[in-house]
Design a protein that fits this description.
Oligomer: single chain
Strand order of the largest sheet: 3-2-1-7-8-9
CATH architecture of the largest domain: 3-Layer(aba) Sandwich
Number of domains: 2
CATH superfamily of the largest domain: TPP-binding domain
Length: 246
């Protein structure tokens, strides 16, 4: 891994001394698993952008089209496996008291790796919920592909939608509260995220205001404003850290 030893050794020192560590993860954590990026360059599906489909207005206008896209996404993600980054974070979440993971990803790979103490800010592509908000609890459905017709709510029979946070929607208050609580840490690892999507991008400022050291693991510089940066893919950096931290 091409990381200056000074920064790497400092991260090791901080992790070894910290009683509470939080990892904030984004799409870069799943890149080595082959999960496609559905936004930005190369993010078109047919002639549509993710921003054209992942909205309440798009679902209200054409639920069949939106479900066709999510069926396609679910099929791609189902073929992917957790990579070394997921495995390291999962092991730390199980073995290190005070370690938590807050993720922006909806692919479910953290869960498949066995991560505990996990907060999913943007929901899960494997969860369904009632479009009409009839009061039914969200439910998991990992079948791929689903029937090409939009699924139905198990309680009221109305349309069901993906259990993800769409553009223009607010995050679940309980998830926001859990993420805020996770900001009370000594070290925050910001891993594979662009640090431009709010409110997730604001968590680093909250953690810093509470005394946390911000460590960014990303091949590129981002607006995270990290105290220490490891410029490497998540799976390589975390594997190297795990071998030394234990």
């Amino acid at each position: 891994m091409s990381v200056p030893s000074k920064e790497f050794d400092e991260v090791l020192r901080r992790l070894s001394a910290a009683s509470r560590v939080t990892a904030l993860t984004g799409a870069g954590v799943s890149a080595a698993s082959g999960v496609p990026t559905f936004r930005g360059a190369g993010g078109l599906w047919r002639e549509f952008r993710a921003e054209d489909l992942a909205t309440p207005r798009a679902f209200a206008r054409d639920p069949a089209l939106v479900w066709e896209w999510y069926n396609w996404r679910r099929g791609l993600i189902a073929a992917c496996q957790p990579n070394r980054a997921h495995e390291v974070l999962a092991a730390w979440s199980r073995e290190r008291p005070g370690f938590s993971v807050v993720t922006q990803n909806v692919d479910g790979l953290h869960e498949r790796a066995g991560t505990v103490n996990l907060t999913r800010l943007h929901g899960s592509i494997w969860m369904l919920q009632c479009w009409s908000e009839c009061g039914a609890a969200p439910w998991e459905d990992r079948r791929t592909p689903l029937d090409p017709r939009p699924p139905r709510c198990r309680a009221c029979g109305g349309l069901a939608r993906p259990g993800v946070v769409w553009f223009g929607e607010n995050l679940n208050p309980s998830d926001l509260a859990a993420a805020d609580a996770a900001c009370a840490c000594a070290v925050m690892l910001v891993i594979g995220t662009s640090s431009i999507v709010y409110p997730a991008a604001g968590l680093t400022d909250i953690a810093r205001s509470r005394g946390a050291v911000i460590v960014e693991i990303n091949p590129e510089f981002t607006p995270a404003g990290a105290d220490i940066g490891l410029r490497a893919p998540a799976e390589l950096a975390l594997d190297a850290l795990a071998r030394r931290v234990g």
